[in-house]
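Good morning C.,

I know you're traveling, so I'll keep this short. The sequence:
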Amino acid sequence: MAAPALSDMVEGLVIRGPSKQPEPGCAESWTVSADRLSWTFKLRPGLQWSDGVPLTADDFVYSYRRLLDPATGASNAGLFLAIRNARKIVQRQMPPEALGVRAPDPRTFVVELEFPVPYLLQLLANTQAAPVPKHVIDRLGRDWARPGTLVSNGPYVLAERVPQNYVKLTRNPRYRAADQVRIDEVYWHPTQDLGAAFRRFRAGEMDVVLNVAPDDLGWIRKNQPEALHTGPIHATYLLVLNVSREPLDDVRVRRALSLAIDRDVIARQLLKTGVRPAWSFVSPGIGGYPGRMAAEAGMPAAKRIAEARRLLDEAGFGPDNPLTVPLVYDTQEENRKIMVAVATMWQAIGVKAEISNVEFGAALGALRTRNYAVARSSTFSLYDDPNAFLQQYGSQSPTNWAGWRSPAYDQLLEKANAAIDAAERTRLLLEAEAMIADEVPLIPIYYYQGKVLVAPRVKGWWDGAIGTPPSRFLSVE
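The tokens, ready to paste straight into the viewer:
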């Protein structure tokens, strides 16, 4: 289900509201211990699930244990490894019941950490940290999330879902702030056809479109500039390399493929949408992070090409043994243009790209099962800290689709998380990012730029570098 639709249906301890900072959600208040290793949340009185069953702190205990349980297979479980014993649970060395969460009473929920986490509230504002209904899951198993049976606790409930067409949500009368929800029905239309979405927006069939094809930007800027919302997003468009597959297990090959791609040409000449060329993984400026610039960023194209050829030759590839690399991407016009450009750039170093496009679900499935060589992907930050990017390539991260493992990298992240001094923490994170640049499990292409269309009749919209406004904060004139 589309992430915006899910964020309309669930609510965690805290939410991300108009302030763009964590605000009280299911929890009305919280306190932190002196060593910042224990957080105590006081739930609002009278919370209910959408079926009228009381929602208590025990629901959060169950939900967090379920999230970290390897049997659940939650893709973003790696976000919460700072909770006490979470890492050992993910590694199947401890049972989920050992997780550092407890409920002393129905309105008190306690989270115990392995190390201080300054961005904990931002983590808990994400949908992954929202509760799920044990009483329904116990009864229905995997069928608990279907229309008609799905029970949630957010502003909206799932009324109907038509795959590849739309998700219909209706207002939840049992939501804790139901009187503040001003839109009765919300339809989310997931699509990879950006041109079709834009045409429906122009026809008045859609009020919000979360992405725009580059070819349509000129017309929009000229004819509907008031509808266009742009701005930096903490997200990186990238290629993921399967390091367990020959010859991508050779770092020289991975470096050559990265060197051959001219990010400036793709961002500024091909796309021309305001995106910034990415010569490093982490989005600059996130959480005050200075970012790092890879050495090849300022390298002339001819020099990069020459170095890429040298590396391939050293790895045993050349005219007599040409390298062919399968490259898969999810169907979308912008992706197609970029993949064609990448193939052309690889051709300049004697590499042939076998390009194939599949639906988004199939592309994601290939990444998760590691059934690919090189695949288009992206990393979107779920909280305002560089660790949001870097933790995804830790050895235990479920989203480490490259299969890259480095104990040294893991240790750097652990030291950074334990660092009290902010400057020392930044130094360690920069060192960790440099390891990714050296080992090349991924090739960053550009940093995202928001291109959102919002109809003038929609009120309450705000722009931000992380996420979009939940529908409960909007109204339609």
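Safe travels,
E.
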